Amino acid sequence: MNVNYCSPNFQFENRPPLKDYTSNIDNIKQAKNRIAELQNIIHELNKSNGKRSVSPLAKSPVKVNAPIEYHGTSKKQSPRFQTPETKPREIRVVSENVKMQTENFIEQGILQGVLPDHLLEKSIENYTLSKVLGLGSYAIVRLAQKGSMFCAIKTYEKVKINDQQKRKNVCREVKILSKLRHLNIIKLVGACETQVQLHVIMEYYSATSLNSFIKQQPQKKLDEDQAKYIFIQLVDALKYCHHKSVVHRDLKLENILIDPLNNKIKIIDFGFSIAIDPSSKLNIFCGTPSYMAPEIVNKSTYSFPADVWALGILLFKMTTGQFPFRGNDDKDLYKSINNGKIDYPQTMSIQLKSLIKKILNTNQNERPSVKEVALDEWLQ
């Protein structure tokens, strides 16, 4: 069937306008496909009507990115495609931009200079990947095995962390983990980087979070002796982190793994963690609302005492099954946190109540350090 490509009623299958595919590495493949389509259109136009014909694309605006918007001419001229003769040039510019961005993306190693050589692996082909352990916005965690060793591999798709801040956060997490060696902190085994993925290899400990563990208990809470055993481990791990000048900033039940057979725990997910000078202060609003200290809620400066506050929230939740501060929404919750008023159950021991009161002091300057918490009467 003959088709009149110059007919004013003809439409190219309702194709959308050319988008700025080169601004996002995730769309490189789509950009190449679009380029191929445009090249085919040019070929058909030239074949059917010769180069004197006017492209139907000239009748509708086409959005293009900055490098090709004005085609090297005055801004007074139209940014649209004009004739089949101009199209190859436009396509060539897009193609070159895509190629340039692809090459830069591949050459830029995320972990370059972040980890020592002995922690960098060239490939994960020696690992057998199996079930999914966790799924986040930017990464997926899978159980893996290498020989007799089991581990957890956290895989980032580079296109999902293609802006500078996201990559900086990933590098910071990996670097911090590489410097932490504690019995109650998940251990970094190594890392592997390919052109399109970043694999962070960690020891596999347990698929049970402390949150799930508590929910499995008959009364959805732990007795004081059981909670004390777990809390001592948490305090020791956090004391080690603070000694290394690391603020975790997201301590919560979901970020603590527990072995149900012996109640041994490990802290995971250092995605919000940061290493700072002991005298420095932070002002980034981050964390999980129910565990946020008043200074974070109020968007004031904060540091290590914010982690201690989270310890108090964890201790109260473990022993009562409830959060000490609650609200119908974040606004109500933050108001409750600032108020600092807590209803303690009558069954709670005097020693435990005293410790929680000390920790959940709304004044961060009066809050005990993690070293002081470790010396409290209830933990002896």
TrEMBL record:
<keyword id="KW-0418">Kinase</keyword>
<feature type="binding site">
    <location>
        <position position="154"/>
    </location>
    <ligand>
        <name>ATP</name>
    </ligand>
</feature>
<protein>
    <recommendedName>
        <fullName>Protein kinase domain-containing protein</fullName>
    </recommendedName>
</protein>
<feature type="binding site">
    <location>
        <begin position="254"/>
        <end position="255"/>
    </location>
    <ligand>
        <name>ATP</name>
    </ligand>
</feature>
<dbReference type="InterPro" id="IPR011009">
    <property type="entry name" value="Kinase-like_dom_sf"/>
</dbReference>
<dbReference type="InterPro" id="IPR030616">
    <property type="entry name" value="Aur-like"/>
</dbReference>
<dbReference type="Pfam" id="PF00069">
    <property type="entry name" value="Pkinase"/>
</dbReference>
<feature type="binding site">
    <location>
        <position position="269"/>
    </location>
    <ligand>
        <name>ATP</name>
    </ligand>
</feature>
<dbReference type="GO" id="GO:0007165">
    <property type="term" value="P:signal transduction"/>
</dbReference>
<dbReference type="GO" id="GO:0005524">
    <property type="term" value="F:ATP binding"/>
</dbReference>
<keyword id="KW-0175">Coiled coil</keyword>
<feature type="coiled-coil region">
    <location>
        <begin position="21"/>
        <end position="48"/>
    </location>
</feature>
<comment type="similarity">
    <text>Belongs to the protein kinase superfamily.</text>
</comment>
<keyword id="KW-0723">Serine/threonine-protein kinase</keyword>
<feature type="domain" description="Protein kinase">
    <location>
        <begin position="127"/>
        <end position="379"/>
    </location>
</feature>
<keyword id="KW-0808">Transferase</keyword>
<keyword id="KW-0547">Nucleotide-binding</keyword>
<keyword id="KW-0067">ATP-binding</keyword>
<feature type="active site" description="Proton acceptor">
    <location>
        <position position="250"/>
    </location>
</feature>
<feature type="cross-link" description="Glycyl lysine isopeptide (Lys-Gly) (interchain with G-Cter in SUMO2)">
    <location>
        <position position="252"/>
    </location>
</feature>
<dbReference type="InterPro" id="IPR000719">
    <property type="entry name" value="Prot_kinase_dom"/>
</dbReference>
<dbReference type="InterPro" id="IPR017441">
    <property type="entry name" value="Protein_kinase_ATP_BS"/>
</dbReference>
<dbReference type="GO" id="GO:0004674">
    <property type="term" value="F:protein serine/threonine kinase activity"/>
</dbReference>
<dbReference type="InterPro" id="IPR008271">
    <property type="entry name" value="Ser/Thr_kinase_AS"/>
</dbReference>
